[in-house]
Amino acid sequence: MLVVARVFYLFDLFFAVFAPIVMLMYSYYNFHVDRDNFVIREETLTPGSFDRIARLFADPIQVQLVKTSFANLQITEGEYILVKCFLNLLGIYKWKKVIAYLILANRSRREDKGVAKARAHPHSRKHTMVGGFIFICCSMGIAIYTALSISTSIENCAPYQHCPVYSYRWDWGHKSTCRCIVFMDLDLAPRTYNDWINAPDVTEDLRALSSNGYLQIVQIINRAVPELPEELRLCTKLKELILVYTKTRRFPEWMKEFTRLEYFHVENDLIHSSLQYLPPDTFSNMHNLRFLRTGELPNLDDLSGLTTLYIADAIHAYSLPSLVGLTNLKNFALFRRNEICCNGWATGYCDLTNFQKNITQNVQASEPTLQSTDGMCQGVLYRECNMNGIRGICYNGRMQVVHCDVFGEYEKMRRLQIARGITIWVTSILSSSPSHIFTSWSAMLRVLGQRLLSRASPSHAPRFFHASAAALHGDMSKFANNPTVHIKFKLRDDSIKEVEAKTGMSILDVAHANDIDLEGACESSMACSTCHVILEDPVFDELEEACEDEEDMLDMAFGLTDTSRLGCQVFVTEDFEGTTVMLPKATRNFYVDGHVPKPH
């Protein structure tokens, strides 16, 4: 009896305490986020950009599993209290029976065993059989209910591809429906302009899965939900609401009924479907809200649970609202300049004639167009593009359609990824199967990216990366008919080497053609400073100003001077005749294994 009691007690203890811990340990060792990539995002992208929010790129299924495991270790809801109390009472009852048995066994050794058995046997046998029968019936009932719940829930939720997580329930005497917990429909990188502008409407799917009132997480990106369905109001346990480019223009008055909401993120296309109305009392009862991102500065009086507050691009905000009610606030930041900054300006002087409100920007011109998407990029990530004479990179910034971005941030991010040897798998979450992440047709980017990052070898002639033109560093025949100029290189040992160069060649090309030790580890992509050179004043003054990317790389260069430039960005002209190009005493080596590239 003692062995059986201990086995059942350990069984209860495992599911009450250790099972959630096992799930957390499983999550810790099996769920991974690309932390190195997000470190680069933090370094290169503008603060306040939601491209820096890792939660949006994490797998919602994994997030829900971790949160559920944590919730099972805490007493957060009435159901958890009842279950834990029942398990504790059951354990107490079992140990009470064990102790009573030990007392009875000890007493039986002192008394006449025959008399004790005669008196105790009928009574004990009757209660034992009744208790055993009840226990067996309950066990069988639980097993049958569990089997029916699993089978019917799988069958009912199979038609709903946007419900990766659901509750296993079986309704006695009623038609069972899908009790969805997580609704997820994402397209993180639309390939064509039409896919982005005319995104499929998923309102009816959301309506159907909201009708049971079990939804806790709703995450919709690049799908249309013009108006939240009335059935969503039944989901009183909703904890996360993420709507990005869903064409939702107005939020209903009953939004304030989501009192358990912890995460609220709304982002719309500013030109085509901007948010027009958010009830002023939306957050009045959301005391559990931890994350908030909207296009409007809300009333902060009732957000006592808010831990982080970032105010970005709020040029319409003339004064900072009261933060007295934010008793749990741990992080606060104000991005971009506005009139709020004049209150306690760091320099002691605030120039109202030079701040963000005075800057005129064509917002529509900065948004994706048919030409900047289908015309230039054709759905290919990281392709080099050119818009209005400005070089850019094809990227799905802010989860928009893949388009030509000429502002430089994403190009800087990509170059830093290459410089640090971070291989990016191009993935998309397909609406037809939201619970799985598939590698896209452009998996070749990984192979070609590794080829770019691998050690240079003279025997491996042209290197191709994505869809851009190949840099054929070993082929100088295209400059053969150009005029010749004479250039002197002052090497690291202070010796002078005079060489001939053709106009149109870069200083890096000239160095490689004449066996001069100038690295150029990033293959002229402005992702490193290893081709740093120092020019004479007359030549430097005749050059065009360095772009932002080149200046960023020069900031990391050793021995930086006022006339420093990247050799891959300085092209020889006839004015270079007789000039001296000086190599710095040291340079950074971006190759992990210490390899120094040879001229080729």
TrEMBL record:
What are this entry's molecular-function GO terms? 2 iron, 2 sulfur cluster binding; electron transfer activity; metal ion binding
Q: Which UniProt keywords apply?
A: 2Fe-2S, Electron transport, Iron, Iron-sulfur, Membrane, Metal-binding, Transmembrane, Transmembrane helix, Transport
Biological process according to GO: P450-containing electron transport chain
One of this protein's Pfam families, by short name? WLGC
- PROSITE patterns in the cross-refs: 2FE2S_FER_2, ADX
Q: Which InterPro entries match?
A: 2Fe-2S_ferredoxin-type, Adrenodoxin-like, Adrenodoxin_Fe-S_BS, WLGC
Keyword Acetylation (UniProt): no
CDD domains reported in the protein's UniProt record: fer2
User: Which cofactors does the annotated protein need, by name?
Assistant: [2Fe-2S] cluster
Q: State a GO cellular component annotated for this protein.
A: mitochondrion
Coiled-coil regions listed: none
Q: Which residues cross the membrane?
A: 6-29, 129-148
Q: Where is the 2Fe-2S ferredoxin-type domain?
A: 485-587
Q: Which family does it belong to?
A: Belongs to the adrenodoxin/putidaredoxin family.
Protein name, UniProt field? 2Fe-2S ferredoxin-type domain-containing protein
Its organism's taxonomic lineage begins at: Eukaryota, Sar, Stramenopiles, Oomycota, Peronosporomycetes
